[in-house]
Design goal:
It contains 13 helices and 19 strands. With 470 residues, it is of the alpha+beta class. Strand 9 and strand 10 form a beta hairpin.
């Protein structure tokens, strides 16, 4: 298995290892929750890099131990109906366990048995389901340094991570894979990766430098340094015993009690995080040129969403007025002076945790479906605010009968809490707020249509409201 020991293969170069795995990956990958290319046929694979985190040679005859392969694989797909060049390949991080035979307890993790190539006759499976391999991954994070094309690093200000912590995967719906180690740490393994700094590492480190303790400090991380710099995984303290805002909101709805106190506190926390990010990272002023680009991007996303979800078509003219109003704001004197900065990018109730009375914010990845460069682009803070306002609406819609006044009370309290810290009430900027809430609802429509069709009526109800005259 010398090929996998420290391969740094250019994307175009054929790989016997990947050729042997391709038939298995072609059937296994599209069923993964984190696979972004659902609905588009897979046409091929290219190996970006490979490394043996645990030698596969130990899986030969008479060997008991597993091997662990780390692969970055580019997945090529056709766009249905496309006639020109296809979209760029998505790159995925795979951690593959390799054994001669698979124990019954790991049967659900099975990927398959390659018929040819360097792994012929062995069993390949999802390595993050094997406790022996997840313990090895933690050991790598505890000992910084290079490993083939990978580099493991630790935060200078973080305490040492103890070894031997058992790992359990989180089974919640998500676009990545998370492992909890001993109820003390959580490792987010990023699945679809892109070159460049990742906000889920970049922003928490910036907040720590700014002295903001609303976000857990990254303890360790690993990345690919060759051929491209990919952030691959981030280890942070696990806030054991905390409850996320989504769970708390649903409990309040079920009990028939308001959630306005919690919403106000969340508004204050959001403003604190925004202030810390603005103090630590560059900001710019929202001027005419940037406003025009933002509005054009929203309008373009609306057109693409309508092609994917025809139910949006009747609403297009009215929804577009929200983006036209944003563009007009940039051309007026009233549109000057707004701050554009780094933001959370995907803020909602599920991205907040409460321990006792203390609220924290997690998961700074941004909306995974958007390109990384876009997620790292400074935005008006109202983008995060719109995301949280939509989340209150989502929570209210889960309750029967629907209680719109519950959501309205939360929305108002959240904005009031934000204003108490920032000095600026988001509702005083209606053109910005409507544009970003509309853009978020359009994103939700596409997401639900692709992944959770039963939830589609929730964002469609918001579309109906946001497209209403007046």
């Amino acid at each position: 298995m010398s090929e996998a020991a420290a391969t740094r293969t250019p994307v175009a170069r054929p790989s016997p290892l990947l050729t042997s795995l391709a038939p298995l990956l072609r059937s296994w990958l599209p069923d993964r929750r984190w696979f972004a290319g659902k609905g588009r046929p897979v046409t091929g694979f290219s190996l970006v890099s490979a490394a043996e985190l645990l030698p596969v040679a130990g899986t030969g005859p008479g060997a008991e131990g597993p091997g662990l392969l780390h692969l970055l694989v580019a997945v090529h797909q056709d766009e249905p109906g496309a006639t020109g060049p296809g979209r760029p390949a998505d790159c995925y991080q795979l951690l593959l366990g390799v054994r001669r035979t698979l124990p019954p307890r790991l049967a659900p993790a099975l990927i398959g048995r390659p018929a040819t190539g360097p792994l012929a006759g062995r069993t390949v499976y999802e390595g993050l389901r094997d406790p022996r391999l997840t313990e090895l991954l933690l050991e790598r994070l505890r000992t910084p340094g290079p490993h083939g094309p990978l580099r493991f690093a630790r935060s200078a200000g973080a305490p040492a991570v103890p070894g031997g912590l058992p790992a359990r995967p989180l089974d919640a719906e998500q676009s990545n894979t998370s492992l909890v180690y001993g109820d003390a740490y959580i490792l987010k393994v990023l699945r679809r990766v892109e070159p460049g700094p990742h906000p889920d590492l970049e922003l928490p480190l910036a907040l720590a430098r700014a002295g903001c303790d609303r976000v857990p400090l990254p303890v360790a991380w690993y990345e690919s340094a060759d051929p491209h710099p990919y952030t691959l995984g981030v280890l942070q303290p696990y806030l054991s015993g905390s409850r996320d805002g989504w769970q708390l909101a649903l409990e309040a709805l079920a009990a028939g009690r308001p959630f306005t106190g919690e919403a106000r506190a969340l508004g204050r926390v959001t403003a604190e995080v925004h202030a810390a990010l603005a103090a630590e990272l560059p900001t710019v002023t929202l001027g005419p040129a940037l406003t025009t680009r933002l509005a054009a991007g929203m309008s373009s996303r609306l057109d693409e969403a309508a092609l994917a979800v025809p139910a949006l078509l009747p609403y297009l003219p009215r929804l577009r007025t929200a983006f036209d109003a944003l563009a007009a704001l940039g051309r007026s004197t009233a549109g000057t002076g707004h701050r554009v900065q780094r933001v959370h990018g995907d803020l909602h109730l599920g991205q907040t945790l409460r321990s006792g009375a203390y609220w924290s914010v997690i998961d700074f990845e941004g909306e995974p479906a958007r390109p990384l460069a876009e997620r790292r682009t400074p935005q008006p803070p109202v983008r995060d605010i719109a995301g949280m306002l939509r989340s209150f609406d989502y929570a209210a819609r889960t309750h029967r009968p629907w209680n719109p006044s519950w959501a309205d009370g939360c929305r108002a309290a959240y904005c009031e809490g934000y204003a108490e810290v920032s000095g600026r009430d988001p509702r005083a900027e209606p053109a910005l707020l409507r544009a970003y809430e509309t853009d978020k609802a359009v994103y939700e429509v596409v997401y639900e249509a692709r992944h959770r069709p039963d939830w589609l009526p929730v964002p469609m109800a918001a579309i109906d409201r946001l497209a209403a005259p007046g």
